[in-house]
């Protein structure tokens, strides 16, 4: 059995003392692709920000490889091996593709290692290889999303967290982005994916958790969730 790499235990989160997440628990095992799905505003991104150290839980714990990281700052969590790709891409718009990638590796001091990672990642994203000297803001929406993922991989994470990748993308591009995520996972990176496109996320995930108004209401294998009457009715329009 693979080891549990991420363990979230009964976390309770609030913004300005207004509760948003209520006693949420879940786990991600090494090499898994796990999806947290639900409607917009359910609290999915808050969970990601809490794991990434951008906000801290009021109660409960987050453990990464057995170590409590609940109250570590975001830069320390990145150094521990967790890379977070936030909703909305957040690229350095005026910098080139190549410069954006280098900034993704800012915790690495070895120049040869940075170049090696860049070569590896550009092989995974051939379109970015073609665009490496292009300014990020001139890329298409799909290309910008690919760059955001590629930049996140430059820190060589053990856990890659992807927040609402499909936002603002055409259906054909969503499919392409999902295929890329599967490819990254098959190469050995553990992935936690948060997504409001429930069917698309569950079709590529090993397991999933359904969140509604800050609480997990269902969990199981992706097949179990896709076949669940509640999920079909609430999210798949069936």
Tell me what the structure shows:
The structure is a single chain. The protein has 238 residues and is of the alpha/beta class. The chain has a domain at 1-81 and 159-165 and 190-238: Rossmann fold (3-Layer(aba) Sandwich). The chain contains ten helices and ten strands. Strands 6-7-8-3-9-10 form a six-stranded mixed sheet, sandwiched between helices. A four-stranded antiparallel sheet has the order 2-1-4-5, with helices on one face. Strand 1 and strand 2 form a beta hairpin. The longest helix is centred in the last third of the chain and has 16 residues, at 171-186. The N and C termini lie far apart (35 Å). 37% of the residues are buried.
Summarize the structure.
By secondary structure, the chain is α/β, with parallel strands linked by helices.
Labels describing this entry:
alpha/beta; 4-stranded antiparallel beta sheet; 6-stranded mixed beta sheet; 38% helix; Rossmann fold; 238 residues; single chain
């Amino acid at each position: 059995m693979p080891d549990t790499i991420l363990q979230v235990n009964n976390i309770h989160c609030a913004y300005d003392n207004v509760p948003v997440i209520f006693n949420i628990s879940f786990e991600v095992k090494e090499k898994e692709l796990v999806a947290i799905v639900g409607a917009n505003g359910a609290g999915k991104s808050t969970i990601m920000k809490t794991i990434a150290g951008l906000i801290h839980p009021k109660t409960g714990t987050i453990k990464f490889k057995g170590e409590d990281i609940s109250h570590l700052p975001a830069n320390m969590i990145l150094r521990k091996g967790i890379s977070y790709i936030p909703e909305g891409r957040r690229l350095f718009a005026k910098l080139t593709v190549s410069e954006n990638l280098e900034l993704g590796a800012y915790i690495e001091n070895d120049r040869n290692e940075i170049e090696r990672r860049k070569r590896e990642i550009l092989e995974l994203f051939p379109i970015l290889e073609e665009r490496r000297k292009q300014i990020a803001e001139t890329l298409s929406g799909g290309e910008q999303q690919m760059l955001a993922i590629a930049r996140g991989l430059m820190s060589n994470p053990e856990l890659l967290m992807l927040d609402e990748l499909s936002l603002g993308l055409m259906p054909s591009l969503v499919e392409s982005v999902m295929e890329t995520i599967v490819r990254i996972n098959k190469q050995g990176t553990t992935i936690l994916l948060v997504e409001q496109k429930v069917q698309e996320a569950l079709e590529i995930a090993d397991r999933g958790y359904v969140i509604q108004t800050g609480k997990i209401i269902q969990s199981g294998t992706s097949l179990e969730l896709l076949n669940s009457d509640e999920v079909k009715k609430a999210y798949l329009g069936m």
